[in-house]
Amino acid sequence: MMGKKNKKNEEIEQKVTSAEEFQEGIIEDAAVELSQEEFLEKQITELTDRFQRSVAEFDNFRKRTIKEKSEMFDMGAVSVIEKILPVADNFERALNAATDKDDNMYKGIAMIYKQLSETLKSLGLEEIECIGCKFNPSFHNAVAHDESDEYDENTVTQELLKGYKYKEKVIRPSMVKVAN
Question: What is the pLDDT of residues 77-128, one digit of tens each?
């Protein structure tokens, strides 16, 4: 009987051992699945982060490209305007020098000057206001002083050459006389 009990005990112990091994296997499988889930979640997080960074980099590149194109256009426009301004000045001098304002030549020059001025204005060119304004070295170039009772000290009394700015950038300062 003792042999049967030992055998039964051994069988029970084997079954318990088998059950314990089975539980350990399930636990190991669950741990492997959990680590795979953690691995996949980590990989998803990493890939999402890389994607978001790539999108942000592309958006920054797009914005930088648009800004650079705008700056290049402005540089080109300023370059052309600087070359055209002496022509506009000569038209203005011709109009000021004319004695007969009813002459067809004067009227033709006036029409061309007006068209040129409107075209430059449509491109964004603005005249700098100066007569009666306080002298500002950012906008005015004082080439003479004027003794004047009509104007306060450091006030622009006469414009000798028009000044212009393009999008708040001074292209050419006004050449002016300033009251002492």
Answer: 999 999 999 999 999 999 999 888 899 999 999 999 999 999 999 999 999 9
| Calpha distance 40→27 (Å, rounded) | 20
Contact 161, 154 (CB under 8 A): no
Q: 135: Cβ–Cβ under 8 A, 6 or more apart, which residues?
A: 142, 154, 155, 156, 176, 178
pTM of the prediction?
0.64
Which regions in the chain score pLDDT beneath 70? 1-5, 16-19, 22-34
The rounded distance, in Å, linking the Cα atoms of 40 and 36 is: 6
Give the domain extent around 160: 127-180
Strands 156-161 and 140-146: unpaired
Residues 17 and 30: their CA atoms lie apart, in Å, by 20
Do 116 and 95 touch, CB atoms closer than 8 A?
no
Alpha helical stretches, state H, the chain: 2-97, 104-122
Q: Find the CATH number of the domain harbouring 142.
A: 2.30.22.10
Strand partners, 134: 155
